[in-house]
Protein backbone atom coordinates (compact mmCIF):
# COMPACT_ATOMS: atom_id res chain seq x y z
CA UNK A 1 0.00 0.00 0.00
CA UNK A 2 1.27 3.48 -0.87
CA UNK A 3 2.32 5.51 2.15
CA UNK A 4 0.35 8.72 2.39
CA UNK A 5 2.18 11.67 4.01
CA UNK A 6 -1.08 13.19 5.22
CA UNK A 7 -2.10 9.99 7.00
CA UNK A 8 1.36 9.61 8.51
CA UNK A 9 1.31 13.17 9.85
CA UNK A 10 -2.17 12.82 11.34
CA UNK A 11 -1.26 9.56 13.07
CA UNK A 12 2.09 10.85 14.35
CA UNK A 13 0.90 14.32 15.38
CA UNK A 14 -2.72 14.06 16.51
CA UNK A 15 -3.03 10.39 17.40
CA UNK A 16 0.44 9.38 18.57
CA UNK A 17 0.78 6.61 21.14
CA UNK A 18 1.09 9.09 24.03
CA UNK A 19 -2.40 10.45 23.26
CA UNK A 20 -4.42 7.26 23.67
CA UNK A 21 -6.90 8.81 26.10
CA UNK A 22 -7.70 11.70 23.79
CA UNK A 23 -7.88 9.48 20.73
CA UNK A 24 -10.21 7.15 22.60
CA UNK A 25 -12.43 10.09 23.55
CA UNK A 26 -12.67 11.29 19.97
CA UNK A 27 -13.47 7.83 18.61
CA UNK A 28 -16.04 7.24 21.35
CA UNK A 29 -17.65 10.62 20.63
CA UNK A 30 -18.08 9.65 16.98
CA UNK A 31 -19.79 6.40 17.88
CA UNK A 32 -22.15 8.18 20.27
CA UNK A 33 -22.91 10.99 17.80
CA UNK A 34 -23.74 8.38 15.14
CA UNK A 35 -27.03 7.89 17.00
CA UNK A 36 -28.01 11.36 15.78
CA UNK A 37 -28.28 13.15 19.13
CA UNK A 38 -26.06 15.59 21.07
CA UNK A 39 -23.97 14.08 23.86
CA UNK A 40 -22.89 15.50 27.19
CA UNK A 41 -19.25 15.63 28.21
CA UNK A 42 -20.09 13.49 31.23
CA UNK A 43 -21.78 10.91 29.01
CA UNK A 44 -18.72 10.83 26.75
CA UNK A 45 -16.24 10.57 29.62
CA UNK A 46 -18.16 7.68 31.16
CA UNK A 47 -18.41 5.81 27.87
CA UNK A 48 -14.70 6.30 27.20
CA UNK A 49 -13.56 5.50 30.73
CA UNK A 50 -11.88 8.90 30.97
CA UNK A 51 -12.29 12.09 32.96
CA UNK A 52 -14.12 15.23 31.89
CA UNK A 53 -10.83 17.13 32.09
CA UNK A 54 -9.28 14.80 29.51
CA UNK A 55 -11.59 16.21 26.83
CA UNK A 56 -9.74 19.55 26.85
CA UNK A 57 -6.47 17.88 25.85
CA UNK A 58 -7.88 15.54 23.20
CA UNK A 59 -7.13 15.85 19.45
CA UNK A 60 -8.92 18.81 17.82
CA UNK A 61 -10.53 19.67 21.17
CA UNK A 62 -10.51 23.36 20.25
CA UNK A 63 -12.78 22.57 17.32
CA UNK A 64 -15.43 20.60 19.22
CA UNK A 65 -18.90 21.97 18.46
CA UNK A 66 -21.28 22.56 21.38
CA UNK A 67 -24.90 23.59 21.65
CA UNK A 68 -26.21 26.22 24.07
CA UNK A 69 -26.44 23.55 26.79
CA UNK A 70 -22.77 22.68 26.29
CA UNK A 71 -23.60 19.32 24.78
CA UNK A 72 -21.29 18.08 22.05
CA UNK A 73 -22.76 18.41 18.55
CA UNK A 74 -19.68 17.65 16.51
CA UNK A 75 -16.17 16.29 16.70
CA UNK A 76 -15.19 15.21 13.20
CA UNK A 77 -18.66 13.69 12.86
CA UNK A 78 -21.24 16.41 13.40
CA UNK A 79 -24.95 17.15 13.59
CA UNK A 80 -24.33 20.58 12.02
CA UNK A 81 -24.58 20.79 8.22
CA UNK A 82 -21.39 20.76 6.13
CA UNK A 83 -20.83 19.99 2.44
CA UNK A 84 -20.44 16.30 3.34
CA UNK A 85 -23.70 14.49 4.14
CA UNK A 86 -23.14 11.21 5.99
CA UNK A 87 -26.16 9.01 6.64
CA UNK A 88 -25.95 6.15 9.16
CA UNK A 89 -28.91 3.94 10.09
CA UNK A 90 -31.28 6.64 8.85
CA UNK A 91 -29.61 9.40 10.89
CA UNK A 92 -28.60 12.44 8.84
CA UNK A 93 -25.12 13.43 9.95
CA UNK A 94 -22.24 15.37 8.42
CA UNK A 95 -18.46 15.29 8.49
CA UNK A 96 -15.86 17.99 8.63
CA UNK A 97 -13.98 16.88 5.51
CA UNK A 98 -14.10 14.53 2.55
CA UNK A 99 -11.55 12.14 4.05
CA UNK A 100 -13.74 11.75 7.13
CA UNK A 101 -16.48 10.19 5.03
CA UNK A 102 -14.07 7.39 4.13
CA UNK A 103 -12.60 6.96 7.62
CA UNK A 104 -15.59 7.11 9.93
CA UNK A 105 -17.52 3.96 8.92
CA UNK A 106 -14.62 1.86 10.24
CA UNK A 107 -14.41 3.91 13.44
CA UNK A 108 -18.13 3.74 14.23
CA UNK A 109 -18.49 0.21 12.90
CA UNK A 110 -21.43 1.09 10.66
CA UNK A 111 -21.87 1.51 6.89
CA UNK A 112 -22.73 4.97 5.62
CA UNK A 113 -24.11 6.59 2.51
CA UNK A 114 -22.33 9.76 1.50
CA UNK A 115 -23.38 12.72 -0.58
CA UNK A 116 -21.09 15.66 -1.18
CA UNK A 117 -20.66 18.45 -3.70
CA UNK A 118 -17.77 19.09 -6.05
CA UNK A 119 -16.07 22.21 -4.70
CA UNK A 120 -15.43 23.45 -8.24
CA UNK A 121 -18.43 22.46 -10.36
CA UNK A 122 -21.23 21.86 -7.88
CA UNK A 123 -21.72 18.31 -9.18
CA UNK A 124 -23.31 16.01 -6.61
CA UNK A 125 -21.08 13.07 -5.68
CA UNK A 126 -22.56 9.94 -4.11
CA UNK A 127 -21.05 6.78 -2.69
CA UNK A 128 -21.45 4.16 0.00
CA UNK A 129 -18.72 3.22 2.47
CA UNK A 130 -18.70 -0.05 4.38
CA UNK A 131 -16.28 -0.67 7.26
CA UNK A 132 -15.40 -4.09 5.83
CA UNK A 133 -15.74 -3.86 2.06
CA UNK A 134 -14.87 -0.20 1.49
CA UNK A 135 -16.20 2.09 -1.22
CA UNK A 136 -19.02 1.18 -3.61
CA UNK A 137 -21.50 2.94 -5.86
CA UNK A 138 -19.26 5.94 -6.53
CA UNK A 139 -21.02 8.38 -8.86
CA UNK A 140 -19.45 9.89 -10.83
CA UNK A 141 -16.78 7.20 -11.02
CA UNK A 142 -14.20 9.88 -11.82
CA UNK A 143 -14.59 11.60 -8.43
CA UNK A 144 -11.49 12.42 -6.40
CA UNK A 145 -10.79 13.90 -2.99
CA UNK A 146 -8.23 16.44 -1.89
CA UNK A 147 -6.04 16.08 1.18
CA UNK A 148 -3.82 18.96 2.32
CA UNK A 149 -0.08 18.68 2.63
CA UNK A 150 1.36 17.59 5.98
CA UNK A 151 2.99 21.00 6.36
CA UNK A 152 -0.46 22.64 6.52
CA UNK A 153 -1.53 20.95 9.77
CA UNK A 154 -1.79 23.23 12.79
CA UNK A 155 -2.72 21.06 15.81
CA UNK A 156 -4.42 24.06 17.43
CA UNK A 157 -6.58 24.70 14.34
CA UNK A 158 -7.22 21.23 12.97
CA UNK A 159 -10.54 21.94 11.30
CA UNK A 160 -9.37 25.09 9.54
CA UNK A 161 -6.00 23.77 8.38
CA UNK A 162 -6.67 20.09 7.78
CA UNK A 163 -10.42 19.51 7.44
CA UNK A 164 -11.75 22.48 5.50
CA UNK A 165 -9.31 22.02 2.58
CA UNK A 166 -10.40 18.39 2.19
CA UNK A 167 -13.10 18.34 -0.49
CA UNK A 168 -14.63 16.13 -3.14
CA UNK A 169 -14.20 16.99 -6.82
CA UNK A 170 -16.00 15.45 -9.78
CA UNK A 171 -12.74 14.89 -11.67
CA UNK A 172 -9.02 15.43 -11.18
CA UNK A 173 -9.23 18.25 -13.72
CA UNK A 174 -11.83 20.01 -11.56
CA UNK A 175 -9.35 19.86 -8.68
CA UNK A 176 -6.56 21.59 -10.60
CA UNK A 177 -7.15 25.00 -9.02
CA UNK A 178 -7.20 23.44 -5.54
CA UNK A 179 -3.91 21.68 -6.31
CA UNK A 180 -2.29 24.95 -7.39
CA UNK A 181 -3.27 26.52 -4.06
CA UNK A 182 -2.08 23.50 -2.05
CA UNK A 183 1.14 22.46 -3.82
CA UNK A 184 2.10 19.93 -1.13
CA UNK A 185 -1.39 18.43 -1.03
CA UNK A 186 -2.67 15.42 -2.94
CA UNK A 187 -5.64 14.77 -5.20
CA UNK A 188 -6.56 11.09 -5.05
CA UNK A 189 -9.10 8.79 -6.67
CA UNK A 190 -11.62 7.87 -4.00
CA UNK A 191 -10.67 4.17 -3.85
CA UNK A 192 -6.98 5.05 -3.50
CA UNK A 193 -7.77 7.58 -0.78
CA UNK A 194 -9.76 4.98 1.16
CA UNK A 195 -6.80 2.60 1.18
CA UNK A 196 -4.11 5.20 1.82
CA UNK A 197 -5.94 6.92 4.68
CA UNK A 198 -6.92 3.70 6.45
CA UNK A 199 -3.99 3.96 8.93
CA UNK A 200 -5.83 6.89 10.54
CA UNK A 201 -8.99 4.93 11.32
CA UNK A 202 -6.87 1.92 12.32
CA UNK A 203 -5.02 4.09 14.84
CA UNK A 204 -8.25 5.41 16.35
CA UNK A 205 -9.61 1.88 16.59
CA UNK A 206 -6.44 0.71 18.34
CA UNK A 207 -6.85 3.44 20.96
CA UNK A 208 -10.49 2.56 21.57
CA UNK A 209 -10.11 -1.21 21.84
CA UNK A 210 -10.97 -2.53 25.30
CA UNK A 211 -7.99 -4.00 27.16
CA UNK A 212 -7.56 -7.72 26.65
CA UNK A 213 -7.47 -10.13 29.59
CA UNK A 214 -4.05 -11.61 30.19
TrEMBL record:
It comes from the Bacteria. It catalyses: an alkylmercury + H(+) = an alkane + Hg(2+). Cleaves the carbon-mercury bond of organomercurials such as phenylmercuric acetate. One product is Hg(2+), which is subsequently detoxified by the mercuric reductase. Keywords: Lyase, Mercuric resistance, Mercury. GO terms for molecular function: alkylmercury lyase activity. Pfam families: HTH_15, MerB. This is Alkylmercury lyase. NCBIfam families: lyase_MerB, PRK13239.1. Its EC number is 4.99.1.2. GO terms for biological process: response to mercury ion. SUPFAM superfamilies: NosL/MerB-like, Winged helix' DNA-binding domain. Residues 7-76 form the Alkylmercury lyase helix-turn-helix domain. The keyword Lyase applies. InterPro entries: MerB, MerB_HTH_dom, MerB_lyase_sf, WH_DNA-bd_sf. Belongs to the MerB family.
Amino acid sequence: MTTNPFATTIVDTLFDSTANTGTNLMGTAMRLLAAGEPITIEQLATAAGASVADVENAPAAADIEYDDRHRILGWGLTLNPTPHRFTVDGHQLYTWCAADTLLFPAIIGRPATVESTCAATGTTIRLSVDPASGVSGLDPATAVISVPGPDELDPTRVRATTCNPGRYFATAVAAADWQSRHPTGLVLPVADAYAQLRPISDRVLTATEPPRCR
